[in-house]
């Protein structure tokens, strides 16, 4: 068998292993590819790259993600959630100053995953924050605020303790929720990449190539200027932050039918 046909055959087995949802079939295809590669002294990463090159090559794209209408409260925490998801799925983002629109740069499948996860997690975040506000536990907490008064033509600033407002509790809760989701997804990504590298040596090089291609695309496509101010909340509520973090720890990741499994196979 010629080297070209051998690479194509091994690459085909690898693609079958990566496309099936049946873990037993995936293992069988991968084992077959490994046996054939070993007998022919062919590196699996080389075979995979060869096959991808013969097929239609995926290219990075830019997609606009609408977060909400201008002036709507909480858009920054919504945007923070999407950005956390994107960071764990190889998608780079720009965002408007009003936090209403995100420009996502990445491969189509990766952006699709981000949108699916965001749709599910946003609903969970809003529902969880609503339930927290109904509980009223935040009302027992106070924060230090600066009050400005005019006396004799001068502005006098004094610090007073006031109960935590509902909007403050909501923003703190949602910000902590988004941060925890980002940490969970980042950890899952690291585990998946490590397992892939252990089972298929050379995966790290393929992923590095993908990263560099996306970086070049972003540099030539993005017209972003300045920096996003983020979802910083002026007043802090420790109780709301702790509750949001707990909700983020228990949120479902990929359990809905339209979402990929949590340990989805890496695209190469």
Walkthrough of the structure:
The chain is an alpha+beta fold. The protein has helices at 3-19, 23-40, 44-54, 75-87, 108-135, 166-199, 203-221, 238-250, and strands at 61-66, 92-95, 101-106, 142-151, 154-163. A hairpin with a 5-residue loop joins strand 2 and strand 3 (101-106).
Helix-strand blueprint:
Blueprint: H1 3-19, H2 23-40, H3 44-54, E1 61-66, H4 75-87, E2 92-95, E3 101-106, H5 108-135, E4 142-151, E5 154-163, H6 166-199, H7 203-221, H8 238-250
Antiparallel strand pairs: 1-3, 2-3, 4-5
Helix pairs in contact: 1-2, 1-3, 4-5, 4-6, 5-6, 5-8, 6-8
Shape: elongated
Q: Let me know the average pLDDT.
A: 80
Helical percentage? 55-70%
- Quaternary state, please? single chain
Structural class: alpha+beta
Rg from alpha-carbon coordinates:
24 Å
**Please, how many helices?**
8
Q: SSE string, helix = H, strand = E? A: HHHEHEEHEEHHH
Beta-strand content bin: 5-15%
* Sequence stretches where pLDDT stays below 50 over 5 or more residues: 255-268
Strand order of the largest sheet: 1-3-2
Strand elements, count: 5
Instruction: Let me know the largest β-sheet.
Output: 3 strands, antiparallel
Short description:
The chain is 57% helix and 13% strand.
């Amino acid at each position: 068998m010629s080297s070209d046909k051998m690479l194509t055959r091994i690459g085909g087995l690898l693609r079958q292993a990566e496309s099936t949802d049946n873990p037993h079939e995936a293992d069988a295809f991968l084992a077959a590819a490994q046996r054939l590669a070993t007998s022919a002294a062919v590196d699996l990463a080389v075979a995979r790259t060869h096959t991808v090159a013969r097929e239609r090559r995926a290219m990075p794209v830019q997609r606009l993600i609408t977060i909400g209408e201008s002036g709507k409260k909480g858009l920054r925490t919504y945007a923070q959630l999407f950005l956390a998801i994107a960071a764990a799925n190889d998608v780079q983002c720009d965002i408007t100053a009003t936090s209403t629109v995100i420009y996502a740069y990445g491969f189509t499948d990766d952006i699709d995953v981000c949108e699916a996860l965001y749709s599910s997690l946003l609903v969970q975040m809003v529902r969880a924050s609503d339930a927290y506000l109904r509980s009223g536990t935040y009302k027992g907490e106070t924060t230090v605020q600066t009050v400005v008064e005019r006396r004799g033509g001068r502005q006098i600033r004094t610090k007073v303790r006031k109960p935590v407002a509902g909007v403050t509790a909501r923003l703190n809760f949602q910000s902590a929720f988004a941060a925890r989701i980002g940490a969970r997804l980042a950890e899952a990504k690291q585990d998946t990449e490590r397992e892939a590298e252990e089972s298929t040596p050379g995966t790290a090089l393929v992923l590095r190539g993908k990263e560099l291609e996306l970086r070049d695309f972003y540099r030539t496509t993005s017209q972003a200027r300045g920096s996003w101010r983020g979802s910083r909340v002026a007043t802090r509520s420790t109780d709301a932050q702790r509750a949001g973090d707990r909700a983020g720890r228990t949120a479902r990741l990929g359990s809905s039918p339209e979402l990929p499994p949590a340990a989805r196979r890496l695209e190469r």
